Amino acid sequence: MKQTINPGFKKKTLTLIDNIVYSHQKDLDGKPLELKMSILLQNGNSEMRLAAGEDDPKEDHSPKPALLWIPGGGWRGADKNLMLGEMTEFANAGYVVASMYYRSSAQGHFPDQIIDVKTAIRFLRANAEAYEIDPERIGVFGRSAGGHLAALAAMNLDDYGSEEWKGYSDRVQACCNMFGPTDVVGLMEAEEKKFSDPKFRWHRVEETHGGALLGGDPATMKERAWKASPVNFVNPAMCPMQIFHGNSDPIVPIEHSSDVLYENICRAGLDD
């Protein structure tokens, strides 16, 4: 039996653009790397419009605020699309969501990771029109290692630039840091106290996530970890930051991360 229906449009359709190359880099062995991101946004569905014979009445191609998702994984690497299912909630709310891959600690040592994040931000601004992004409203969010990098990007420092997409700003207007290890020195010191425990997963500082991130001489790792710690760079140029952290976190203790960061923000008079 043939039946004709009008499907209507209860909500906007989402478009996923995958494997967008935002940066060309080299790994620790000098091998070339293409760093990629995915972009998820509401911008209609041409096939549905053709099938239904009408435009989506909710369709809107005006510039939208963008969020850059920075994955976690202990800086050792994570699939950029691992949390894509959760990201649809933000896209449905009207954000353009970009999910990026950055160099893992096996491919590059700090500051390579924050250089990649800042390059991704500049890429989004340089291509704002193509992806319906409002270049004045770009935020970063991430959890664990991604929260650390989001917090560091949120400081809006002039450091860690590169030639790629030069001329565009890598400053951000908002940040959500979910249990990021923002005091890398404090985290290393807490882990060192457990090295004598045979059941602990690490027994040398270079084996830790932070040690792998920094690379190089283990004797200078804590000294160099100071520069990788967002808690040390709170300043008036930083953007508003939302911090989430569980007080029972066994991997990134809250007292060695979010507590210190929040105290420093308050001490600087930036907690309003």
Describe this structure in words.
With about 270 residues, this protein is an alpha/beta fold. It has one domain (about 15-265): Alpha/Beta hydrolase fold, catalytic domain (Rossmann fold, 3-Layer(aba) Sandwich). Helix content is about 25%, strand content about 20%. It contains eight helices and seven strands. The chain has helices at about 45-50, 85-90, 110-125, 145-155, 185-190, 210-215, 220-225, 260-265, and strands spanning about 15-25, 30-40, 65-70, 95-100, 135-145, 175-180, 240-245. Strands 1-2-4-3-5-6-7 form a seven-stranded mixed β-sheet, with helices on both faces. Strand 1 and strand 2 form a beta hairpin. The radius of gyration is 21 Å and the shape is elongated. The model has no long low-confidence stretch (mean pLDDT about 90).
Q: Which strands sit side by side, in order, in the main sheet?
A: 1-2-4-3-5-6-7
**What level of helicity do the residues show?**
25-40%
Average pLDDT works out at: 92
The helix/strand class is alpha/beta
| Tally of structural domains | 1
The count of β-strands is: 7
> CATH superfamily name?
Alpha/Beta hydrolase fold, catalytic domain
Q: How do the SSEs run, as a string of H and E?
A: EEHEHEHEHEHHHEH
CATH architecture annotation name: 3-Layer(aba) Sandwich
Biggest sheet features? 7 strands, mixed
Shape: elongated
Radius of gyration: 21 Å
Assigned CATH class? Alpha Beta
Query: Any low-confidence stretches, pLDDT <50, length ≥5?
Result: none
Number of helices: 8
Which strand-content bin applies to the residues? Answer: 15-25%
User: CATH topology, anyone?
Assistant: Rossmann fold
Distance, first to last CA: 64 Å
